[in-house]
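BUG-415 | component: ligand-complex export | severity: low

The export step for beta-D-galactopyranose jobs runs without errors, but we want the raw record kept on the ticket for reference. Input record follows.
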Amino acid sequence: MTSIRTGITVITLSVYLVAVHIHAGKFEVLHWWTSAGETRALDFIHAQLSQQGIDWQNLPVTGGAGEGAMAVLKTRVLAGKSPAAAQLIGPDVQDWATLGFLTTLDEIALQQHWSAILHPTVDTLIQHQGHYVAVPFGIHRINWLWINRTKLKQTGRSAPQNWDDFFSLADEFRQQGIIPLAHGNEPWQNATLFETLVLSLGGPRFYRSVFVELDEQAILSDTFADALRLFARMRSLMDDDINGRSWHQSTALVTDGKAGMQIMGDWVKGELSAWGKEDKLICTAVPDTRNFHLYSIDTMVLFQQPQPDKDQQLFAATMTAMNTQLGYSLRKGAVPVRNDIDVTLLDPCAKDSYLRFMENEMHQTLAPSLAHSMALNAEREDIFIQKIHRFFQQPDTPVEQVQAEIVRNLKPLKQ
Ligand code: GAL
């Protein structure tokens, strides 16, 4: 993901004024949701808003985790063509709000009691200096292991609880002649896999000390070194065609029984439901993370218009309504951002995610995703993602070298 900083620091006030844009009837929504499940979830919102007279225009930019979308958003804003709404997540929302680009949603938030109905983590994430500046969509859990149900059954084993079990199961899948672990060699996918290993080996407090607090000792620790070694070992479970493979192509491999497992966020479930193949896979936590929740919270921001824009307010109000939250989450594989959900309405994976989220939130042990922009702003996140990606291409690199490089590169950004 490229840093927005380089682009936005050069924006002068005059450019900003040009950038303010009237959406003139059309309600453009820039996002990176292009897979079957993602599209279906967005279509659901689109349909609800169209019924209310909003002329929704999709501006999709391919690339999981927003790898391409952020660059396009920057260009559009600088060219004075800001969309009415854009997918923007994590601490980056604060950067855009600081520059004054975003519409505030305080009135809707007050009317709908957002501070009472949203999970506290969500409520904090969408505020800037006490004002609401983003619309929450849903919460994803990243530390999921997806396994082909039939293939697992054929091994006579149950879902792996620890890494020994995991590697033995992988061996069995290899003996069945299928790919043990489906994966795509993209920077964000590699970071997604790696962060689950850091959580697994170190637990949530260690995870936070690395990816949130940037604690040098934690990055240089044996635990972090072990996570890198485990990550390198994962490469041996993959096939030779990982380059250019999207996350949903990996999901298809597991669903079709050509691969045994995939480690990926629960947007996989959105895909299964779009394909009508929910029963093909089982969801289980990544080994040794059963009690934890590594999260990504999807949000959209609304770009300021010269006049108050009622479509934007309607969009925010619709998105947080109970029926929208339930319908959207079901299609997206996410769980609702509201804390007042009847959990009997959720499927077993979603129920587990929802309850774990609340439990970890209460104990302050939630793990914000690095790969999905929850932990750091873009500049710092990029350093980790690039180093992790490079190491995965050259897994023979001594792990101590990778650790030292991360620390060295982060140093100038820590002040
Ligand atoms: C994440 C996003 C998810 C999912 C995924 C893959 O960053 O939070 O909603 O769509 O990317 O595209």
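Assignee comment: Attached the raw record above. The chain has two domains: 8-141+297-362, 144-293+367-413.
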